[in-house]
Amino acid sequence: MTESEVQSRAILVLGMHRSGTSAITRVLNLLGVELGSHLMPAAAGNNETGFWEHAGIVEAHDALLYGLDRSWHDLRPLPNGWLRSDAAQVAKARLAALIEADLAGAPLWAVKDPRLCRLLPLWRELLEELGIEPCVVRVLRHPDEVARSLRDRDGFPLELGRLLWLEHVADVERDSRGWRRCIISYDDLLSDWQSVVDRAGIELAIHWPEEPMHAAAKVDAFLNRGQRHHTVDTAQESELPALIQEVYDSMRAIAQGTSSWDGLASVMNRYHPIAEVFARGYEADIQRSKLEVMEQVAALKSDARQRGEAMLATLREMGNWVDVPIDAAETQSRDDCASLYWCEKASDAFDESRKVTLTGGGASGDARLAFHLPELPHVPKLRIDPSVHPGRFDLLGLRIDGLLVEDLAERVERVSQLRLAGQGSGHVALVAMDDDPHVDMNVDDLAVDWSSGVTVEVHVLRQELPRAGFDEVWQRVQGGVAAACASSLVEHGRSQLQSIENLEMRLQQFCRQLGMELERHLSASVTGGMNKLHAEMRAIESRLIQSLEELLQGPNDSHNAHLVQFAQRSDVLEQYLSDLSHSLKQQMERLDRRLDADMQGLEQQANTHTMAVVEQLRVEERASRLQLLNRLEEVLRGSDALHSERLDVLSQGVERLYDRDDGHSAELAELRRMLEAMDNERRKTLLQRLRGSLRRR
Fold first, then answer.
1. 230: exposed, middle or buried (Cβ count in 10 Å: 0-12, 13-18, 19+)
2. For the chain, N or C: smaller number of CB within 10 Å?
3. Contact 659, 510 (CB under 8 A)
4. Are strands 337-343 and 438-442 parallel, antiparallel or unpaired?
């Protein structure tokens, strides 16, 4: 690569986490080195003066490590062939776009991220393809100071911190060979920063855009020696393993100009063969930890799923969502955040490496969320997480770069957990009982230029629910409107069932009495007498059907009126059956006297024929009577009267909820119409079956 091909120069600031890379990068920035316009913000308790890292580059590095099943604190080497993996190629494309858009226009710029130590081979290819000349600033801090800082911040054992320091040194020394490079000691930077940057400029062949003497006031104000919390004394240095101490001494000599990089390379060549031993032990610990975590996560997911399904099943049985009173302490605003995930392919799953998060605000109320997405080739799917708390969520609008998505409801592919009926194509409503409410939607066909970075605006109404277990929620439901509906339902159903059972018992008793009367008189019947008897039976059946129709088709305006009318009709039917039985008995007595007179002259002549006819009629009548009784019992019991009355009472309960007009009017009205249709269909079916059974008889 010739000088004419070089568009700009890049300084790669390399060092283990907590090594002072942030301080050195900021000093370079004050000397005129460009860092880009999208820097990560400072973090209290971690890096108060700023990280001075490009946020997009750090996100790309994290996504790559995640795709390779690694992390920044992983002792294992990267997988074989990782540079040719899909994750590496995607990261390479993202990094190239970020550099060309935000850094390559500057003649001298720098990138700082401790993850760079593990990913230098990717950057070597990338910078060569972009025609950018790299150079390396290797930051040195005592390994025990790094390890103690990691222990205090992340809880890592000292041994792990030391090994991580050694691994980062080994990777940088091997993968930066052939580049211009220098080592800057964090101690030297704090004590005499001007000498440090002068020597670094000579070793890297760089003329700083801002003369150090002109930037002295700014650099001195920035370098706060009080921010250094961990120092190592002579006694602690003796505790350091011999190999790590030798590596540190070699790097210290290079930083002071008393040794060359060849001495460090010699020490590293002795370390590389034994590094695999540490990696294998660490791999076993990781696998064991993964299994334990997976078991714990599976148990938690199973418990959460069972509780969520049980609560949703209970709410569905109530017919629709029921508002319950919530204590004032539970309705207070809680810290909340919202996230937007995206996929770059329709077949991809949503993951943490592709999301934007907005923090702040409470879980309740009207909110307009604005998510700023990075430059992307294409986005076929979005996932909106409006909150991290349970609740009801109404998506009232979606805009992508100012373009209103009008068919929002039709684009929804999945919600968590229960989707409610919306008010038009631009409204999506859902209820979630866990901490992961979300909506997945398809935006593949929208005419959006994702490559320039877009803003996704979501208008959402959030209504918070209590954070409670299933038992607590069920107790609240029982103490509210649902308890009154359920109690009324059981009481009404028990009363109606008892009334129908009494009616059924009377009908059975009447049929038995009728059968006994018929059996006693059939032996003396003749054809004319039987025809007349059949006519009487048909008249009785007709009147019985009419009475049952009047009973079942009675008005159902209110619970009390229905019970009164039912009781009145039951009394009328009972009196009618008594009168009918008495009338039939009188007719039978008159018929008996007339038949006795006729039989005296016909007994011998028709004896044989009569006995055969009588026997046949007995068989037919017994079969008909049993069929009639079985059919009536099946129809009356199969009509599921208890279910019918439950529907009636639930309809009244829904009517009361509907009158409250609490935002669910349309849903309750639809449920009421469904219940009325089911009740009418049940009545029609029952009448048809009764009428058909009696007519066949």
1. middle
2. N
3. no
4. unpaired
Residue with the two structure tokens 């009639």: 628
Is residue 123 within 8 Å of residue 135, measured between CB atoms?
no
The stretches of 79-142 forming alpha helices (DSSP H) are 86-102, 120-130
User: Exposed/middle/buried for 189, CB within 10 Å: 0-12, 13-18, 19+?
Assistant: buried
Poorest-confidence range of 419-423, 606-610, 627-631? 606-610
Residues facing 39 on adjacent strands: 54
Q: What's the token pair of residue 558? A: 């209110």
Per-residue pLDDT, 655: 67
| The two three-digit tokens of residue 186, written as one number | 């964090």
Residue among 262, 275, 255, 111 nearest 191 (CA)? 255
Strand order in the sheet with 438-442: 355-359, 337-343, 381-385, 438-442, 412-416
For 345, phi then psi, to 5°, come to -135, 150
CA separation for the pair 273, 329 (Å, rounded): 61
- Per-residue pLDDT, averaged over 619-645, amounts to 65
The pTM (predicted TM-score) of the whole model is: 0.44
Q: In terms of C-beta density within 10 A (0-12 exposed, 13-18 middle, 19 or more buried), how is residue 514 classed? A: middle
Say which residues have a Cβ less than 8 Å from residue 264's Cβ, sequence separation at least 6.
173, 247, 250, 251, 254
Nearest to 20 by CA among 217, 202, 190: 190
Q: Report the Cα 541 to chain-centroid distance in Å.
A: 60
Supply the DSSP symbol for 348. Answer: P
Cis, peptide link before residue 417, omega less than 30° from 0: yes
User: Which residues, in sequence order, are CB contacts of 277 under 8 Å at separation 6+?
Assistant: none
- Rounded to 5 degrees, φ, ψ at 446 are -75, 140
- Give me the helix-helix angle, 559-602 and 527-552, nearest 10°: 180
Instruction: Report the distance separating Cα 193 and Cα 261, nearest Å.
Output: 22
Work out the average pLDDT over 86-100: 93
3-class state of residue 354 by DSSP = coil
Instruction: Give 265's contacts (C-beta < 8 A, 6+ positions apart).
Output: 173, 177
Q: Would you call 537 helix, strand, or coil by DSSP?
A: helix
Residue 684 CA to residue 275 CA, distance in Å, equals: 83
Summarize pLDDT for 288-342 with one digit per residue, the tens. Answer: 666 666 666 666 666 666 666 665 655 555 544 444 433 333 444 457 889 999 9
**Judging by beta carbons within 10 Å of its beta carbon (0-12, 13-18, 19+), is residue 344 exposed, middle or buried?**
middle
- Reading across the β-sheet that carries 132-140, which strands appear in turn? 108-112, 8-14, 132-140, 180-185
The CA distance from 615 to 495, in Å, is 44
Pairing of strands 8-14, 132-140: parallel
Q: Pairing state of beta strands 337-343 and 180-185?
A: unpaired
Q: How confident is the model at residue 556 (pLDDT cuts 50, 70, 90)?
A: very low
**Both structure tokens of 658:** 């509907």
- What is the residue type of 612? A
Separation of alpha carbons 577 and 561, rounded Å: 24
Q: Which two tokens stand for residue 118?
A: 């593990």
CA distance 386 to 259: 58
User: What tokens does 318 get?
Assistant: 């109530």
Polymer length of the chain: 697
- Model pLDDT for residues 210-260, shown as the tens digit of each residue: 999 899 999 988 886 545 555 665 545 557 888 899 999 999 999 988 888
Is the pLDDT score of 416 beyond 70?
yes
263 or 641, greater pLDDT: 263
Strand partners, 392: 431, 463
- The residues pairing with 464 across neighbouring beta strands, listed in sequence order, are 391
Mean residue pLDDT of the chain comes to 75
